[in-house]
Amino acid sequence: MTRVDHAFLDKLFDELFPILRSITGPGLHQSLEIVSRHMPLTILTVPGGTRVFDWTVPPEWHLRSARLTHESGRVIADVADSNLHVLNYATPVDIRLSREELDPHLHSLPDVPEAIPYATSYYKPAWGFCLKDSVRRALPPGLYHAKIDSAFVDGVLPIGESVLEGETKSEILLSSYLCHPSLGNNELSGPLSLLGVYQRLKSWPRRRYTYRFVLNPETIGSLCYLHLRADHLRKYLAAGTILNCLGGPNPQLTYKLSKRGDSLLDRVMLSRADRGAALIRPFDPTEGSDERQYCSAGFNFPMGQTARTYGEPPYYHTSLDDKAYMSIASVVKSVDDIESVLRTVEIAGTFRNLSPYGEPQLGKRGLYPTMNVGGISADGEIDARTMVDRILTLLSYSDGTMPVHEIARKHGLVTEDFRAALERLEEGSLLRLEPRPNA
Fold first, then answer.
1. SS3 436
2. Could you read off the pLDDT of 216-269 as tens digits, one per residue?
3. By three-state DSSP, how is residue 218 classified?
4. Bridge-partner residues for 171, per DSSP?
5. Alpha carbons within 13 A on the beta-carbon side of 267
6. Helix (H, G, I), strand (E, B) or coil at 45
7. pLDDT digits (tens, 9 = 90+) for 132-151
8. Quick check: 278 pLDDT over 90?
9. Which end of the chain has the smaller Cβ count within 10 Å, N or C?
């Protein structure tokens, strides 16, 4: 089994970072193949030209080279030096033009003059080059040769999917995107964290929920996934989150609530935020990407977004978002934190008392002190009274309608306070996770 530690993720980052990715094309296929060596992926495909809701899947973009040179022979921009130098999805061009004619096809960031911006034009034909603003401002007059050797070919949009079966069919969906070239925090931290979480959950001795892992290109990929899996998700999805921007310097996870705001993950993260262990962002349909598709009006699925350092200038969508900014240690910490969250999710849902008519006899199951003197337990178990109180509380409220996180809140506790009691009741065949969606 792949050991997902600092050294492994560091090596995988170095393998994935140089690949020219986009929402389709060879780089995306190659990247999914690399990830599949460590997390078994079923590759789902949607052909180019397919109508997906109000969108049309574009043809595959194949880029062979892109270079901008001055008449002096000076190379101004070359995709061989940085994948970000070319407008992603650029149409082919081979033209000589003046400095003034070239300018509308140049992209730079005056506020971040030493960064190359990441720019795209997926759905409107265009060509262009991306430069540091300091370079753009210093461009001399004269003729320039712009050559982009690209092609649009019939192909497919690929999506990677992997499933870890649990004791119930209720699912937790964990998704990330894999389409940005040569960006660290805003690209590779998500898939690396997804892979890390997969390996952690695979090693769990038990999983109450089924966990579904998805890697797709941003926005159009999630729309294609919904095109393929929406009916299944309506039936089984209990909660989910998009993993994105998990390698930045912030000490805590930040969590964007689903539009519904009441999923298992929403509640668990709100509780962590109350204890200072996470930061909450409200749902906002004007920012983010894939979670907006899952939470759109026709679906309204319980999908949030989990990040660490999200949209931080000047790194966001620029060449400054490299390995020097994205810390592998932060990715490992994100995997640790997300695993901890999911361990709580495992016990935060709705359970059913399997012996609901009167209190079951706990003593014969070893769940109640067998000797009581003067009202004090004589079993020698530390805090036995607290354990019994929590067992009785769970049995009383677990009628298949009240989630454990709500039982905990009602009694001024947190979900984890009930873990030991819940596990003992499960072992005694007195409690079972209610396998219904959106519990």
1. coil
2. 999 999 999 999 999 999 999 999 999 999 999 999 999 999 999 999 999 999
3. coil
4. 210, 237
5. 24
6. strand
7. 999 999 999 999 999 999 99
8. yes
9. N
Q: Which amino acid is at 48?
A: G
Strand order in the sheet with 171-177: 42-47, 156-164, 210-216, 171-177, 237-243, 303-307, 253-256, 278-281
Question: Which residue do the tokens 């030096």 mark?
Answer: 81
Q: Judge: domain 60-153, CATH 3.40.50.300.
A: no
In the chain, which segments carry CATH 3.50.30.90?
Answer: 60-153
Nearest to 249 by CA among 177, 192, 183, 185: 185
CB 394 within 8 Å of CB 407: yes
Is domain 349-433 in CATH 1.10.10.10, yes or no? yes
Does the N-terminal peptide bond of residue 314 adopt cis geometry, omega within 30 degrees of 0? yes
Inter-axis angle of helices 189-202 and 6-16, to 10 degrees?
Answer: 140
Q: Quick one: which H or E segment has residue 399?
A: strand 399-403
For residue range 324-363, list pLDDT tens digits in order. 999 999 999 999 999 999 999 999 999 999 999 999 999 8
29's tokens: 């296929």
**What's the pLDDT score for residue 377?**
44
